[in-house]
Amino acid sequence: MTVECYVVVHNIAKRHNVGTLARSATAFGVSELILVGRRDLNTFGSHGSTSHLRFRHFHSLSDARLFLKDKDCDICGVEITDTAMAVNQHPFKKSTAFLLGNEGTGLSAKECEICDFFVYIPQYGCGTASLNVTIAASIVLHHFGGNLLEHHRSPY
Amino acid sequence: MTVECYVVVHNIAKRHNVGTLARSATAFGVSELILVGRRDLNTFGSHGSTSHLRFRHFHSLSDARLFLKDKDCDICGVEITDTAMAVNQHPFKKSTAFLLGNEGTGLSAKECEICDFFVYIPQYGCGTASLNVTIAASIVLHHFGGNLLEHHRSPY
Fold this sequence. Notes:
The structure is a homodimer. The first copy, chain A, has one domain (about 5-150): Alpha/beta knot (3-Layer(aba) Sandwich), CATH 3.40.1280. By secondary structure, the first copy, chain A, is of the alpha/beta class. In chain A, about 30% of the residues lie in helices and about 25% in strands. At the A-B interface, helix 1, strand 7, helix 4 and strand 8 of A face helix 1, strand 7, helix 4 and strand 8 of B. Strand 7 of chain A pairs antiparallel with strand 8 of chain B. Chains A, B: This is tRNA/rRNA methyltransferase SpoU type domain-containing protein. Chains A, B: Keywords: Methyltransferase, Transferase. Chains A, B: It comes from Carpinus fangiana. Chains A, B: One of its GO terms (molecular function) is RNA binding.
């Protein structure tokens, strides 16, 4: 079984995040970065890693979903829901696409609709702070890779 | 036993990284962000989280080490060395300070000298890409918190 990993970004608010996201996606073995909706992107911060990463664009979430389902891919939303599991406890089993919403507001109802299940990132200490969206994505990809992909050694 | 977590940054090259780092540090229960050497910082990207986080400054690495050792704190370098362990396999046991080097070059010999042990972040897929330093820090803090600190739920 070939296991693939995708990241889906819908109308990303801060375009410079796409470059940093591409860099982490490359480090963690992501096959394709899927941009839905807003197409313009700025790869600042990617340190050239975008050359090793495929980008794909869809106009709508349902088009992206069809593409992923055709590849027998789970769609995992990164969001707190009643059924969300801590990302470090989720038993990822097959090809998975991770859907991230905008910072602050998280995934919209429309975005949640295309997800098969949800994971959240546990926080520690007092109160709750928000994480940068590329950091959230990196932590999720790190866990997925640790479960299912071969690994190499790198400090960062 | 009270467990504390620290992040030590020595002459951070990209000042805007300090703000994003502060935001993740808050999310993952870090007690203090310790800046060594270069003092100037720009908290762009912190989303106000710096108000919940203490900063401390030392002129030299050895001064920072003395402060941390006085608190019976392990100093963990994030770097590939012969003895480095994958961060997701390290059995963190007590208060720990994480030392991160500059992107690209990693930790210098002088920085490595003050470390008690080292962890690295496994990468997945083909080749090796570099991670943004704040992303590397966040992944390490996420694991440390998961071992030793109480947690809350948050998507990002």
